[in-house]
Structures are given as C-alpha cells and as structure tokens.
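Why do we care about 3D structure at all? Because function follows from shape, and shape follows, mostly, from sequence. That is the central idea of this module. The next example makes it concrete: a single protein chain, its amino acid sequence, and then its structure expressed as tokens.
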Amino acid sequence: MGADSGPGAPAPVPWRKVLYERQPFPDNYVDCRFLEELRRNIRVRQYRYWAVVRETGLIAHQVSCVALFLTLWSCMERGALVPSAVLWVCLACALLGYGLYEILGGSCVRERTRLADLQSATIFLAFTFGFSPVLKTLTESVSTDTVYAMSAVMLLAHLVSFPYAQPSPPGSLSLNAALFGSVCLASRLPGALHTFTMLSCALLVFALWPCLLHRMREKVEWSFPWAAVLVCLAGVGGLGSLWPEGALFLSLALLTLTLVCPLLLVHLQRHKDNIHGPWDEAEIREDLSCFLN
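And the structure:
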C-alpha cells in the first residue's frame, strides 16, 4: 500500500513509524504490524471474593456505627438513658481503647507523647462542657424537620467521604460532617448535659474508634472481622429495639453490601477489556531530575 503501484513502479518503500520524516504514504497510514503491540488487560487486578468481602466489611462497619449512634441519641431523647451513666461508660471505653491502642502500638515511634494526648482530651472536654449550653440553644430558631434533614445529609456525607482505604486518622471532611450532624442532633436533647454527652460519644465513635480499628487491622488481622461483626450486630440490635422495620432494612442493606456486591464485582471482572498499544500517551520512565536543577 505504498504511494506508487503498478508493474513499472519501483520497489515499495517500507513504512516506518516515525513522525518527522517524509514518506510516500498518507498521514493516516499504518501497516499490518501496527496491532502487533496490542496488549489487553495488562494491569487489571483480579479480585478474590472473600478478600473483597473483607474489605467491604469496613463500609458495613461504618454504617453500623452511624446506626448505633442514632440509636443512642434516640434513647437519650426519650429519656431511656441517663447522661451521667452514658458518660461513665464512654470514659471507661475511652480508657480501655487507649490502653489497647498503646499495647498494639508495640515499639513504633510515637509522634505525640501521652501528656499531649491527655492535654488534647482535657481541652476538648473542657470546651465542649463549657459551650454545651450554647450548643443546646444553637438551633432553637430552626425547625425540627430542618435539623433532622441537615443531620441526615451530614451523616450521609460522612459515610461517603470516609477514607476507607486509610481510616486512621479519619478524613477532615468526614469527621467534620459527622460532628456537625452530631451537634444538630444534640441540640434537640432535653438539657446541656445531654448535649455534652452526645458530643463526647460522637468523638468516641467517629474519631477515636476508627483509629483503634485501623491499628487492630494492622497488628492483629484476625480481630478486625470479629470487631466488624460485633459492631454490625450492635447496630442492628439497637435499631431493632426502636424500629424493627428499620432494623430489617439495615440487615438487608448490610448483607447486600458485604455479600452481593462483592459477588457482582468478581462476576463482572471477566468482562473487563482494557487495551494498551502504540496509541497510548508516552510514559517517561527515565530519571529526569538532573534537568530540573
């Protein structure tokens, strides 16, 4: 398929894949060797079902944490739980979790001292307790439906923006969204002590617990599935005590998320078809740092 053809034409000139050279071929000409460099699925990752189920367990766990937090808030709103008792339970869980976090840390280098951690916790608790009356009246001029809608949107934003690949420490967007939703819900509780209790629980559930869970995944891998299952059962059980239909819906959602979605992903992997060839963008693999000085 050269530029000249016929019985008296000269021998065909071989086509070369070069740009700045005049050749007796059209600009869009390629020969039969062009597709010899075609490669399919060279960087496709093959997933295994139970490995994907394990990874989706973190998403189901975080959804259950939100359900558990909403259950706690509903019980306090109804007067079924005393704020002082909840505070003592939160304090015991925080101390136990901090001790476990330190034990699992082993000989790793600490970026912060224990005194700095104590100071941060003291400052947070002092400011939260001092501003609890203000937070209690923060949304008095806003209708309850609007407050509930804002809380739902913020908790949904927390779930969407949560850094599931690296949950320790939680992302600023997800943590701020969860705390904002917690403030909105806490402002609808009966007293200032209720507000302080709910914000303390929000810090424990949305900020400290993901750090401990990430440490458990790194140091004691077998403990993560059990912890995720226990949190999921607690979320479903707590929601079932208040709203049985909601607990059933949550159970179906968690089963779909952890069992059906991974199966669908593994099944669709066989239909993936990524092609790579000479038409791709050039990749510079040499070290060009010497030209940047």
